[in-house]
Write a structure and sequence with these properties.
mainly beta, Jelly Rolls
Length: 172
């Protein structure tokens, strides 16, 4: 098992969380860091169902793809635990959500969902599909809390192609 981690490099087709810090034209640069920066940069939802999707860079690996896991580092900002969220990805122009759950922590936690096959084709992932993939999350709140996201990324689990030794030969 080998993992290639892909972090956002551009906004995706949908960026509807109303708050980002610091405020700028892009949302992706608030969630693309390798090490969580806590509340130094984030996107936040304080309303009905909203979606954040981010474009990923082109892969550098090769081999057979075993799965794609979307990870989101998220927390509550308030006193209620009535926040529901799920990781999401976009492939073949369709959004897919993975396992809705409540977020009940005021400190950042990592949530994830794994797709063993492409949810659109129900077949094994291809590297072309990985290159076109967008990842993110959907969230909704009720009450006095918001959902804050500081990191989003995809982990592509793959098996590299075998390496065959080159046999020596004699020139003579």
């Amino acid at each position: 098992m080998t993992i290639e981690t892909l972090r956002p490099e551009a906004n995706g087709v949908t960026n509807t969380f109303p708050t980002q810090y610091p405020n700028s034209t892009s949302h992706y640069d608030k969630v693309d860091e390798v090490i969580s920066d806590g509340d130094a940069t984030y996107v936040e939802n304080n309303g009905d169902w909203r979606t954040e999707l981010y474009a990923l860079p082109v892969h550098v690996s090769s081999g057979v793809i075993n799965s794609v896991t979307v990870k989101v580092v998220v927390r509550l900002t308030g006193t209620d635990d009535q926040l529901i969220y799920y990781t999401s990805l976009r492939t073949h122009s369709t959004n897919y959500g993975g396992g809705a759950e409540f977020v009940g922590s005021a400190t950042y936690i990592t949530k994830s969902y794994t797709w063993n096959t492409n949810p659109n084709t129900l077949a094994a992932w291809t590297w072309d599909e990985i290159d076109a993939l967008e990842v993110g999350c959907n969230a909704r709140y009720w009450g006095n809390s918001n959902i804050r996201v500081t990191q989003v990324y995809a982990e592509v689990d793959y098996t590299p192609p075998p390496i065959y030794p080159i046999r020596g030969f004699i020139i003579g």
